[in-house]
Amino acid sequence: MSVTLKDVAALAGVSRSAVSRTFTEGASVSAKTRSKVEKAAQELGYSPNALASSLTTGRTKLIGLISNNFHNPIFLEVFDQFTRALQERGLRPLIVNLTDETEPANSVRMLRQYSVDAVIVASSTLPPSFAKAFHDAGVPVVHTFGRSATSPEVHVVGIDNVECGRMAARELMARGYKRVGYLGGPKDATSAMDRYRGFMEEVEKYTDLEVSHSFADNYSFEAGRAEMLRLLEGAPADGYFCGDDILSIGALSALSDHGLKPGIDIGIIGLNDMEMSRWESVSLTTIHQPIKQIITSSVDLVEEMLKDPARYPEARIFPCRVIERGTLRPRS
Amino acid sequence: MSVTLKDVAALAGVSRSAVSRTFTEGASVSAKTRSKVEKAAQELGYSPNALASSLTTGRTKLIGLISNNFHNPIFLEVFDQFTRALQERGLRPLIVNLTDETEPANSVRMLRQYSVDAVIVASSTLPPSFAKAFHDAGVPVVHTFGRSATSPEVHVVGIDNVECGRMAARELMARGYKRVGYLGGPKDATSAMDRYRGFMEEVEKYTDLEVSHSFADNYSFEAGRAEMLRLLEGAPADGYFCGDDILSIGALSALSDHGLKPGIDIGIIGLNDMEMSRWESVSLTTIHQPIKQIITSSVDLVEEMLKDPARYPEARIFPCRVIERGTLRPRS
DNA sequence: CGCCGCATTGCAACCGATTGCAAGTTTCGT
DNA sequence: ACGAAACTTGCAATCGGTTGCAATGCGGCG
Fold first, then answer.
1. With 0-12 CB in 10 A as exposed, 13-18 as middle and 19+ as buried, what is A307?
2. Count of CB contacts below 8 A, A vs B?
């Protein structure tokens, strides 16, 4: 079928080893043999079989990329960045779509069958135990957007969600909101709970605040919208921290249904600063998360793990900052 | 390092062949050996190395998934569908992000190195020659969202873009628009040109129309918005066919900047019917493209190619229909 | 009881590459 | 010109599995 090492060796009149060596960095081949081999390879249209070589080298350059969030537009940006960053380093993303599945067992088995060199868990909702399962199975793993910890069990790259919760609370208070609410992602999402914790921690320092909270079914426009519509049925707060931009945008849509103006009637602050939040018609005040750096850093970390698999687990936490646009009233 | 066939064979006290056979469908093994092997495998946590076996079987179950569109939110839906459909069939998507690259040579070489069983080119902008390059290299390929043709050189699954152009034109005319415009994707995108062709074909049948056209830099919100802003500087048309929903949404944002109401001051019809188009604040009248069926059908086709690689190229074209929402005035 | 046929099993070659080792060839200093 | 050091090169084993083939064992039948 396809042309192999042997064919090239035969045509070039050298041994298979010689061919192999001309295609591996830093092997000992004379200029003469090399050129003979290259000519033959050219002629036959040969390119080495990466999987066969992985058998002996133990490296496939395949990286499992796992996610469970295919409804939040931010993930298009995330995939774009990840796939490019990996490609630039000669690594290949093998995607696992985890929708409707929370058990790691299947993914672990599957990715081990394909001998991935490492795994990236790109999810802000999965618990640390998920990534841990790969670690336990001997597969190097980094959990991007994962729950940060002072002594992580696996590599984590992301933000301090608790601190973001505090930051949002402080921002609402600085603008004089007195009836504040947290509208978070699903209760089983670690990010939703961490942001909630930070938010509550901060608002509880004050006694003149009326605090409420609720959780959307998932991180999506529809869920954010539905939850805000529900809140508007009763007595809503006047300032909300929505745990994610796409929830915020859903919530904004609900406000608009009720003829309420964001930033005037009700304040909203999001988290992520995704592309859409900058759109004129949205203009969402939000907490910026440095996605690009997080992803670059994650892939850096993957490379370092490949060099030293026993590397001690590390948490890389990036600072966030508030981006002021139009959905909160001015600071008082 | 990891546990292999040999380890299991040793523990179970059988030959390596026996172990291999218990893990391959329909091989001849007695119940007794099978259970011995299964017990040993269980104990050692063995799972077969898919890549090693691919060496002899010639099947990796790896499918290259190539795209160059990571800025259009519709592609999040596309990736979701593709990855799930492939997984359900036991196939693994190996992603290639083609941003800023139009030459197939690199992708072909890379995917051949990884011995993918087949390739899916998911792009409405790449020319047929791109997919053809895989075919020529002996890699089965299906071009999803590709340019349809009566005698395709490779398998194509998608819609008839020319017909969609006509459909949009008819729709604008049925609603009494007289100064009509096409605001398409980039000029080098096959879909943009095909839609343009159909649109012009239809409007040129009438002499009482004033027709204009322009092309955005790419299929993105920003590009659609920028192009519409530019048009609004001069004398805009009163009814536009935007070659894609995300362009439409960008254009809507531009209208809103100028205080213009879609459906009242200027009509807009898009194409795709992506999730966002249904959002209240958008409510885009658009041409629905049956994404899910297209993707399922593409993956079906991949499976059939695996069975019969010499399969004769086929075009599977799905019908589209207009979804009426709020950005065109009522039919007159 | 003997023979036949079938299911099961292990041997060994092979898939496409890499690599340690030893033999052969250069290169270079003196 | 000679010998040692440094390169090159091919052989053969190996990576983790698969599979054709021949050998083995078994049951069943006459």
1. exposed
2. 130
Q: What are the tens digits of pLDDT across the range A201-242? A: 999 998 889 999 999 999 999 999 999 999 999 999 999 999
Q: Is residue B1 very low, low, confident or very high in pLDDT (cuts 50, 70, 90)? A: low
Q: What gap in Å lies between CA B317 and CA B156, rounded to an integer?
A: 8
Residue B31 has what pLDDT? 87
Cα–Cα distance between B125 and B128 in angstroms, integer?
A: 9
List the strands of the sheet with A179-184, edge to edge: A210-215, A179-184, A239-242, A267-272, A286-288, A321-323
Give the nearest partner residue to A51 out of B54, B256, B257, using CB atoms. Answer: B54
Residues, chain B: 332
Angle at B295 between CA B187 and CA B278, to 5 degrees: 75
**Local structure of residue B329 (DSSP, 8 states):** P
* Tokens standing for residue B260: 């213009």
Q: Are A145 and A294 in contact (CB under 8 A)?
A: yes
- A 10 A CB-CB count for A312 gives 7
What's chain A's length in residues?
A: 332
**Which of B266, B278, B262 lies closest to B323, judged by CA?**
B278
The span from the CA of B92 to the CA of B297, in Å, is 17
3-state SS class at B72? coil
pTM beyond cutoff 0.85: yes
What is the distance between the alpha carbons of residues A140 and A212, in angstroms, rounded to a whole number?
41
The residue type of A281 is S
Chain A within 8 Å of B28 (Cβ-Cβ)?
no
- Estimate in Å the CA A26 to C1' C21 gap, whole number: 19
The rounded distance, in Å, linking the Cα atoms of A165 and A271 is 9
- Across the beta sheet with B62-67, the strand order is A315-318, A155-159, A141-144, A118-122, A62-67, A92-97, B92-97, B62-67, B118-122, B141-144, B155-159, B315-318
